[in-house]
Write a structure and sequence with these properties.
rod-shaped, eight-stranded mixed beta sheet, alpha+beta, 8 strands
Length: 398
Amino acid sequence: MVTLGTSTDLSPWELKRARLINGIAFTSMVLSILYGLPYLHPDYWLTLTEILTEATFMGLVLWINSYGYFSFTSHLFVMFNLLFFTFQAISHGAIDGTEYYLIVAGVVSTLFFKSRIVSTVYFFVNGLFFFLCKYSFTVIQPFLFMAHGENQYYANHLNMIIILYFIVLYFKSENFLQETLLQNEKEKAENLLLNILPEETAHELKETGKAKARNYEVVTVMFSDFKNFSQVAEKLSPNELITEMNRCFSAFDQIIHQYKIEKIKTIGDSYMCASGLPDESTHDAVSMVKAGLEMQDFINQYNSDRKSKRLIKLEMRVGIHTGPLIAGIVGIKKFAYDVWGDTVNIASRMESSGDVGKVNISQATYELVSGQFQCTYRGKIEAKNKGEIDMYFVERVL
């Protein structure tokens, strides 16, 4: 019932007001009907009329709210209660304590309006009418007598307590809801940050506002790249190209995740990752080579599917090297975790000097993994700007 007439177009504050108006109107309507049941007798027609008048008005508020006119019903609600309770208090006298509803109505009016001026005016007007009612008891004799007025006094106060209880309960639930939403948004932001940066770097950035670059003694870096990718891209639409890349890189993400390898970045059709970052204890060259082999296996299976559809196949080279480097983030905007050093350059040369379908590794990496894989020594291969480098093709796991 509290969400009656609400929509996704409402702002958070408007939604809160709508839920509050609906909640108070519905609670007041139900309580009025319950209080009216003992007066279902011709002798109590005046008492029953007043009770049903309030119940009917609250039902009218709910009906108008169902069309989303919450701003209108806010003013209507406050004005009706102001006039209705003032009339009841003056006509009944002090016997049933109706004038205290004006205090409740004044408090409630401050919750219905975003404008401090409007809410303050309504609050003080209700307070003024409360004191006018108190004054009227000394100069005006009651002219409408409620049946069992003494009982109605207790009923009115019980009704006010219930309404105030529901207001407090409502705000506690709203605060809990807002805290839950805030926590969910915080978790989303943290997950997004962790999806961009390594966990250790992300925490350092949140706590200090910056993250220092670090030196690492032993890190294994992998590069992969598709051969003649420009020619393949020319035969695909932009959407098809993005779909193909996303499928391949998503598979690579899953492969390296199971080996606790840190993804560094993608550059066009090139994929880069490293083992031993940001925690050096996680370094494992064997896991990196296994990941490289699985990535090539995925591309082979991927090409089988493409061949059945008569699509051009993708050919990929993988290069791996192990050594020291520097890792971290630089700049003050659009943070990106990156790595620098000769190790990165040699790993790139391992990829460009390799063959499609193969995992090409350096001497440094070979010395760490030779007992786990069958490798073929390629000899000293000329690498751009690096001279001759000992290289090995990894054939299979032993």
